Amino acid sequence: MGIAVDSVMHSKGLVMVTLLLGGVLAPSVAVAKEPFIEGQTWGLEVGLGLGWTEESSAYTRTLETFGFEDKYGCCWEPGAPRFRFSGAVERIVLPYFSVLLQTNLLDRRKWYRDSGLGEDDVFAWSSWTLDVHARAFLPVRKWFRVYAQFGVGPTFTGSRLYVQTTADGKQTKYREVDVGYNVAGLGGLELTSKHAGFFVQGGYIYSPSPKNRFGDAHQSGGGILLFGLSAHFGRPL
Amino acid sequence: MNRVALLVSLMICLSSLAACETDLVDDPGFQLWCGEKLCSWELEEGEIRKVPTWHTHDYGVELVGAPVLLSQGAQRSAPCVRIEVTSKVEAGAMVTVEADADGDGEVDWTVPVDGSDRFVSQVQDVALDLSYEGVFYLLKSGQGEAVVARLRVSDECEW
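Structure tokens for the assembled complex are given below, as produced in the milestone run.
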């Protein structure tokens, strides 16, 4: 009974907040009368920013079992955000809808192990996505829009293992590529002139790649916040 | 004057190298293979095989059948010994790390390796006056699968 009452109160609260937000925001998010960027159909985006992902995973715990350590260096603490990059090509196919081919740099790591043979063993990897995104946008003005997008696609994780496997004292580099998948939910806003603009984009990417031979995976995605530049061109729809 | 400075630099360099060197056996990761044999470890009895572990090119040694005995002489003397083993050992395979502290042919202590159906690591410090003639052994005496990915022996003890 207590739970039911509590639930009703919670629902009422949500309704009140929604109405309040609607009342405040509705005038400002009204759809622009003129088409966004005068109806141009192509766009390019390049973004830089930060990502927050899990430090420890089944994958990294296995690395630790085998003697590897994540040496963070002088300027980075465990749990701090890591560098992220994105690039995208956008095609506006309907007045409020576009599709994008987007790539994101996810986690990059470098782990070391005392080999007992001289040089440390090194294992490094970096993960990239290549996704198709569907974006729904609301042109508040012809030069300003807010949007939400959803994407899926493969994740490619390139890895390099440097170990000494022969008695000649030299390390050998072994390259591998793990192909996984990712799903992304992002939102953002863009302020632009006719051809060049600025955007802020944030969201979450789930990407269980790389995986090791035992099937242990590392979530290379996580939360993301990007700031970037955009360009628009092409004939109107 | 320059020669004196060079000599002092060389001595500092050598002393710091000696201070950093803690490993008591070569190739703790069983990475160096000379054909079908390990380059740094002596196969005294039984059969071994090179196998991949978490990565295709990060190897371990599979101890095939029983008994299997690998050995390696200590690189130098030490007042204590830390054993770090990463392994996957079926129950019943009975794998142990042993040491003959002074090379007289008698085993002075034995550390049993934990059984597990996946790779696990274990660390144990042993109070032992190891001579430079000491010998370390990796012994498998029971049937069942046993893969050892790493056997690091050092003097990084916590006491």
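Residues 2-25 of chain A form the longest helix (24 residues). Residues 32-233 of chain A form a domain with the Porin fold (CATH 2.40.160.20). Further analysis is deferred to the final report.
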